[in-house]
């Protein structure tokens, strides 16, 4: 929101980060395959040397044509899980993979975000207001050729202006308890 120079470094950084996810390039790579969501299943049908395509179209509103939301006051952040060799997430039956939720870290942060619309964009190809999912079929990481980490884009629509908010994003699986925190300040 406001002058482009105030957010250009953030949208440019997201553009540079997402270049590796160019769909055309991924499809041309013979080591990448299209994968399907099935609740609760790992990926036994996928060859251990193959990796799944990640389509940036899933990012929906979080794209370069909107400056990743920074131009209209709904900034997006990209979350990824660093690959752990051989790790297979243990998720509850019926879940699609490790789930991530973002909220304010402290009561004051949660109060500041009460009127902020938070949406998650992931491989489910539709926005969700409750959580994001890192699909099970991207695991385990076995140093596959051209492997791309799955992403979850989180859009914060109209966060409060001129207030520093500490955001905490927590990822859950039975065998993973991880979180990341960052600060958001809208001019």
TrEMBL record:
One Pfam family it belongs to: Na_K-ATPase
Membrane protein topology class: Single-pass type II membrane protein
A GO cellular component annotation in the UniProt record: membrane
Taxon lineage: Eukaryota, Metazoa, Spiralia, Lophotrochozoa, Platyhelminthes
Highest taxon of source: Eukaryota
Major subcellular site: membrane
Keyword Cell wall biogenesis/degradation attributed: no
This protein's UniProt keywords: Membrane, Signal-anchor, Transmembrane, Transmembrane helix
Cellular compartment(s): Membrane
Protein name as it appears in the record: ATPase, Na K transporting, beta
The UniProt record lists the keyword Transmembrane helix: yes
Similarity field: Belongs to the X(+)/potassium ATPases subunit beta family.
């Amino acid at each position: 929101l406001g002058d482009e120079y105030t957010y250009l470094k953030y949208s440019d950084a997201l553009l540079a980060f997402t270049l590796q996810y160019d769909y055309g390039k991924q499809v041309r790579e013979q080591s990448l395959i299209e994968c399907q969501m099935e609740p609760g299943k790992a990926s036994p049908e996928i060859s251990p040397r193959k990796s799944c395509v990640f389509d940036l179209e899933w990012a929906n509103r979080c794209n370069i044509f909107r400056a990743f939301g920074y131009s209209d006051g709904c900034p997006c952040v990209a979350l990824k899980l660093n690959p752990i060799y051989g790790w297979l997430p243990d998720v509850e039956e019926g879940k699609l993979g490790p789930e991530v939720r973002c909220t304010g870290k402290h009561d004051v942060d949660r109060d500041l975000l009460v009127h902020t619309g938070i949406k998650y964009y992931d491989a489910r190809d539709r926005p969700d207001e409750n959580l994001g999912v890192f699909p099970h079929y991207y695991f385990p990481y076995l140093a596959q050729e051209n492997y791309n980490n799955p992403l979850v884009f989180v859009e914060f629509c109209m966060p409060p202006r001129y207030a520093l908010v500490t955001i905490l994003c927590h990822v859950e699986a039975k065998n993973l308890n991880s979180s990341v925190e960052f600060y958001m300040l809208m001019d």
